[in-house]
Amino acid sequence: MNGGGEPQSSASFPIALLRHEHADGAAHFDLLVANCAPTSPDAVTVPTYRLARRPDLLTPHCTIGIEPIALHRERYLTLSQAVALDHGRGTVTPLRRGSVVQTSHGDLRIRWNDGELQRWRIERDDADWTLSVLAEHSEQPQ
């Protein structure tokens, strides 16, 4: 997601935050960040990250580790209620949905469906991935 010098993008794509509770009670969060327009609920196209903490509740200048995991089905971008997963993989519960635009610096400008605006940066340094919450004042005018 760290794009360095790619051109400014104005296309927005879906983003979703889910809570994934396993059958044993352990839980984590899945962040789905689409990078293209959805095509089919069963299409497995959505880049997904596993997080121990909810990124939407972090304060500006906070950075947490994240883990890229397998692409997810597009249907998870539009969940409106909890869904039991097959093969004993637990339950996923939608927490937030919205739209995201990736800027020329690789930053993510997020508009949640409730109207809240956030700006994040997802970066990779060697094998480690992080998500940083950027201060609101760093938003550049369009």
Structure description:
The chain has an eight-stranded antiparallel beta barrel with strand order 1-2-3-4-9-8-7-6. The protein has no helices and nine strands. A hairpin with a 6-residue loop joins strand 5 and strand 6 (91-102). It has one domain. It has 142 residues and is mostly beta strands.
Characteristic key phrases:
mainly beta; disordered N terminus; 142 residues; globular; 8-stranded antiparallel β-barrel; disordered C terminus
Concise description?
This protein is mainly β and 142 residues long. The chain has no helices and nine strands.
Describe the biggest sheet?
Answer: 8 strands, antiparallel, barrel
Helix and strand run: EEEEEEEEE
Fraction of residues in β-strands: over 45%
Average predicted local confidence, pLDDT: 89
Helix content: under 10%
The total strand number stands at 9
- Output the number of helix runs: 0
Name the overall outline. globular
Strand arrangement, largest sheet? 1-2-3-4-9-8-7-6
Could you outline the blueprint of secondary structure elements for this entry?
Layout: E1 13-21, E2 27-33, E3 44-51, E4 63-73, E5 83-84, E6 91-102, E7 107-112, E8 117-125, E9 128-133
Antiparallel strand pairs: 1-2, 1-6, 2-3, 3-4, 4-9, 5-6, 6-7, 7-8, 8-9
